[in-house]
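[Discussion] Sanity-checking designs against the backbone

I'm trying to build intuition for which residues belong where. Below is a structure token string of 91 positions. I'd appreciate it if someone posts a full sequence so I can compare it with mine line by line.
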């Protein structure tokens, strides 16, 4: 099985909802906004903010789409003030 297909199935297995599946194509153009512990927040021009959280089983990620305000809050809580300013401007 190809790695791309395996990851897509992993996303599906974790979310249990086909609408929540984030395939590699969506993440290929995405930029990492922040990476803290087991969470990675991405920005994708076509899909907005995407938060991926590694679950207990290696290689499996829980994926959720965040609204801009939710992404701002995630960044405020987890990033340094300088990192936050670089992403959203004045803190």
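Best answer:
Here's mine. Compare freely.
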């Amino acid at each position: 099985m190809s790695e791309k297909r395996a990851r897509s199935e992993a996303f599906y297995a974790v979310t249990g909802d086909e609408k929540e599946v984030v395939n590699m194509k969506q993440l290929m153009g995405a930029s990492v906004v922040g990476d803290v512990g087991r969470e990675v927040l991405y920005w994708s021009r076509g899909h907005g903010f995407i938060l991926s959280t590694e679950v207990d089983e290696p290689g499996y990620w829980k994926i959720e789409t965040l609204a801009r305000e939710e992404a701002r809050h995630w960044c405020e809580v987890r990033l340094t003030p300088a990192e936050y300013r670089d992403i959203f401007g004045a803190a």
